[in-house]
Amino acid sequence: MAANGVKRRKLEHTSSDDGDVVSFASFGATEEEVAEPAGNAGQDKTLEAVDDGDERLGDEEEEGFGDHEGDEQDLERFANHSEEDRGDVEIDVRDGGRFPKGKPAEPGAEQQRQDRAEGTRVRKTASELGTYLAGTSRSNIFKLQVDELLEQIRPRRGKREEAAEKALHSLKKILDQMPARGPLSVSDAEQQFLISGKVIIPFAEPTPPKDAKYKFAFASPSSVNVVGSYALKTSPRSREAVEIDMMVNMPAALFEEKDYLNYRYFYKRAYYLACLAESILDKSTYDTRFVDLHDDQMKPVVVVSPRTPLDTEDEIKPTPRWRINIIPSVGAEVFSKDKITPGRNCIRTTGDTKAGPTPFYNSSLRANMLTPSYLKVLHHAASTCDGFRDACLLGSTWLRQRGYSARISEGGFGNFEWSTLIALLLQGGGSNGKPMLSEGYSSYQLFKATLQVLALRNLSKSALVVGNADTKPTGDGTPMLWDALRAHNVLYKVTPWAYAQLRQDARSSLAMLGDQLFDGFDAAFILRTDGPLLQNDYLVNIPVTTMPAHRGSYHKLFDALKRGLGDRVSLVTMKTAPSMSWQPGSLRSKSTPDTSISIGLIVNPETVNRTVDHGPPAEDKAEAASFRTFWGEKAELRRFKDGSITESLVWSTSEAGQTVLEQVVRFLLSRHVGRDAEQNASFVGNGFVRLLPQGTSTTAYQPLMEAYKQLETDIRGLEGMPLSVRHITPADPQLRYCSIRPPSDTGGRKRPSPANVVIQFEASTRWPDEVIAIQRTKIAFLLNISELLQEAKAAVTARVGLENQEDESLNQAYLDIIYESGAAFRMRIHHDREQILLERQLKDKSLAPSSREGTARALAAYKRDYIKLPAHTQAVARLCSRYPALSGTVRLLKKWFASHLLASHIAEEVIELIAVRAFVQPWLWQTPSSVQTGFLRALHWLARWDWRAEPLIVDLSGTGELRAADVQSIKTRFEAWRKLDPSLNRIVTFAASSLDQDGTTWTDGRPQRVVAGHMTALAKAACAEVQEKQVALEPASLFASPLRDYDFVLHLDPALRGGKKRAGATNGTTFKNLELAAEDDESMIGFDAAQLLLGKLEFSYGSAVVFFAGGRERPVIAGLWSPQTAPRNWKMNLAYSTIPRKVRSKEEEESVTAEINKDAILAEIARLGGDLVESIERDMP
């Protein structure tokens, strides 16, 4: 708990994007208005350490300590982008041993206890700081971040806690004064409560038989204690209600020796709980409800919270500021621990001699007996290990951000399981029964070591035993942390699917915290990672009403999916419906009809679409019979080309629009759950794929790739060329699987878009030594190649085209090569002498400023087009081959930018880097396995990218070739640019990679600051839509945005711009043969009327208007009037058309101002566009 008088402290945090969003919305305002950020968007956010008992804390609580969202906002205030701890202590948990290396030198436990007794923390502070500085943490900043987080989340006393403790005393007084009851039979006990009408006994299913011989009775509790994380201060402070566990120990005399069998203990416990609830209702004004403890229907508890009166029925009741869980328990000596071990059966049916063990039932009962015992275990750990409490706080935060809690519906692994795991490992679990963890470790070391235990030890196959015992897991997938002294599996509530997800999250966090290029603090403790669409590749939702009611049905469903899907998926998870609270006077709440079970699938992209599954060979009779029993009529015996005869399954490539994965899942649901479940199941995950032309497969690119190989062979085989060819390299999105639309169908008549390639010849002294002369020589080379190629290949057409005629220092010509198959390439020549000559010109101090600017522009274009673009193309193509989902992710992300009219401002290469980052640096998650997760995670990062303060850095090698020194060099360049251009007039976004450490190749001059702000706002809106809609999300909704933010919009004719034709459109021709001839005109290869119009408009009106275009994805060009066009004093030679206006000042003096002539400019735009512009819409509503 923080000490009194703690000063308020601040951590600098990057300002939000509000200023840019406002700038976009008010782009038509004056220049001064745009330059001034709105509100306090530019101010730093602060972290405030609240004093104990601070009255201001009560004010905060009044305002809104009631939503889980507030916790995320609280945590987000700690985001302080910096390097994190990476030099972690390593542990080999597979051997069950202690840390073999990295153990810091710390004092003994006895000396630590003496220090605490003396009340000094000097040696502890020095030791902990030494731990971070000596190699177990690479950065002091990370330690400061962790310490600041711990200070903010440590529990401390405030008004909520005072009110809750006052209620605790009141409740204890009520419980101590309760009279004895009974003994009563089942019928008499129910009748007694039926007469009062206040409480219905919350019996679990199945309810006790009416003729049961055992009796129900009540006696005053033998003890009442506060237990759990509130007493130990191991749970983070939350904006939600303060939750306190009150243990009510039931007298042992109420139970008989055999009450551990057949729910008898739980029935008597339910009766005892009903008595408690009735007394509290009679003698207090608190709100009292029943709820199943951690979703375990056998153990309901009474939840007491402050009653909040409502003035009207429609008023929403606020979340209570505190909540007390009254938990009946029994002493550890009441039932023999040997009779309720996980391997015994305690639910016996008459005549059933083959009943298996009941591990969950047994462990649930045993857990109810051990509450005081584990309170002592945790208290001992907190007393002997200084870092224990803070390690629990870090672990609780990590678990909450990933959606885990002690509730079975949320995994069954919560604060208690985390803290008990650490406490037990401080006692044993290592080789020869030695402690696996040391009491001298800091909080972060304990946190990291616990993650390593979860990640590297599979406790569902090999139990982690603390103490002397020979125990094996139950075999149903439940992990086992066996406490031999207390004969209890601490992890009995953890479901197999949640445990698999927990291990994957632990592995991801370990890799993330060990990534030298990634700041893992935010990802580990700040950001939520449990969004179903971000976490899973596919989701299957099944209504609860279609599932069998018993608890084992979920395990049966999980086992069927895991076996049936096999290696198609790497992970199967489930989110079951949580139990709801209910009034004591009503029956137990049941799931509503719209409640569903959510099944998450993370797929293996290499095998998920496999159409033939091979089963066991026919010779293996037992396995073959099991295979046929599981698959039923779907299994068939087949002979394959290699001569083998095996059981097999054959799936359709596309059955009624269903993917292979969906076919398999639906068949498994129909066979192993029920036809009703299969018919009502909804499958989420293919919606985004349908938005891409020809799907996400790279198969559509193969004809062009083969044609490219043929082109290389043809060029190298030409005879009579002056120089031999050194390299032919691809430099086009089509040749790296990244164009929104795959190459056109080679058999069709549509004009293909040529793919850019670069050719480089062997060095020769015959090249001229002047830049302009080199450009002329290139033209001669291209003409020669064109002639030789058409002579050698009759089916090939080659034409030389000219470009950049306004600047002779730039490349002047290209060669279009068209194959009969329809593949088209645009070839340019790379001569490395150009760079030397251009750099020499720049060093010439006598060069005129205008010439220097042109030379610098030519040098930048040379490096971009001939060095970095080919290297970028080859690297991205390799990554697309390595990650099957990357190609579709890039294409979908480009479609998103184009649909929001940002395609003309954000370079394709930058978009590709954003998408690649989600794969090569996937934290918070694993590498995406589907297009959906790749796309949504890229948007998630884009929404959080603070491009003012952070560069985009991507390792395009995918193998860690980008080193820490390279990253530091890139950051240094970024900081230098921010100092040179603090107003972000030239470099707004900074995008670097392992192949391009300059960072400005693709972003020099674009996008403008207002466009970058608009990009961030759109990404945030998309993420908010995903968060709100979740599985009900309509993918197409993320690609639509209104046009009302723009000042005017040009609607283009799709027929004339090469898009989908309207009915009756004839491309300006009257006859079909003329239309076909126009399509076959090879001189029109690569012609894009809309792009040419956009270029013309930007050249003519770029100083007055900012244009936005979406290419083929959205046939409009939108515009915003620049703030620089605001009325100003009249002068000649303005860069845009103006109208003189007389203005009378306050002093009655007349002056003439120049106002932009919007009508004339729009009329001129319409004239330039001609038939391409269908209409112009202005004054958007």
From TrEMBL:
Residues 49-74 have a biased composition (Acidic residues). Residues 1-11 have a biased composition (Basic residues). Coiled coil: none annotated. It is found in: Nucleus, Nucleolus. Its main location: nucleus. GO terms for cellular component: CURI complex; small-subunit processome; UTP-C complex. Keywords: Nucleus, Ribonucleoprotein, Ribosome biogenesis, RNA-binding, rRNA processing. Gene3D superfamilies: 1.10.1410.10, 3.30.70.3030. GO terms for biological process: rRNA processing; tRNA export from nucleus. GO terms for molecular function: RNA binding. Belongs to the NRAP family. This is U3 small nucleolar RNA-associated protein 22. The lineage of its organism: Eukaryota, Fungi, Dikarya, Ascomycota, Pezizomycotina.
